[in-house]
Amino acid sequence: MSTNQVHTLSPEKWVQSYSDYLFNYTISRVSNDEIARDLVQETFFSGLKSMKNFQGKASERTWLISILKRKIIDHYRKINSTKGKAEVRMNFYSDGDNAGEWIEERVPNSWTNDTDKDIENDELKDTLEMCIDKLPEKYGMVFRMKTIQGFETEEICKELDITASNLWVIIHRARTQLRRCMEDNWFNK
């Protein structure tokens, strides 16, 4: 039996009905309360702006989740872009008179004597990023989504319209290419 139920939107109920669910979904992917709240708020705002595009084929919650997924992906793309890095803020002091955030590029150096280790970690991170950037675009996206961002297999498959077996082939090939690139550019330099 096939039912072609047409769903409707009730934006006046979104915050009460979906904010907790969307927040919990988001916090498991970004691990930062403030960013999670901002992404949920942006989702509601985008939903309001694009209500005319809602076709009623999916439930309100499913539609809002699809908007939220795009917001999360955009968040990570922004962080990973050179331009976006200048906008990422970091906590320096968490309480007291000095509480505040710093733009990531301007965070003061650590006051420990681990400078050599920090330099080596930065070089390793830069080399790994360079190797990920050298991957074919789809490989890089799948690798980041699965390994770095922690998306579930089903979510990635649905988002990129690929099968689970295809995803695992891509992950395997990406890891093989990354290993080769890291050996050439990090371990054997």
TrEMBL record:
One of its GO terms (molecular function) is sigma factor activity. Pfam families: Sigma70_r2, Sigma70_r4_2. It comes from the Bacteria. Keywords: DNA-binding, Sigma factor, Transcription, Transcription regulation. Residues 127-178 form the RNA polymerase sigma factor 70 region 4 type domain. Belongs to the sigma-70 factor family. ECF subfamily. GO terms for biological process: DNA-templated transcription initiation. The keyword Chloroplast does not apply. This is RNA polymerase subunit sigma-70. Signal peptide: none annotated. Residues 15-79 form the RNA polymerase sigma-70 region domain. InterPro entries: RNA_pol_sigma-70-like, RNA_pol_sigma-70_dom, RNA_pol_sigma70_r2, RNA_pol_sigma70_r4_t2, RNA_pol_sigma_r2, RNA_pol_sigma_r3/r4-like, WH-like_DNA-bd_sf.
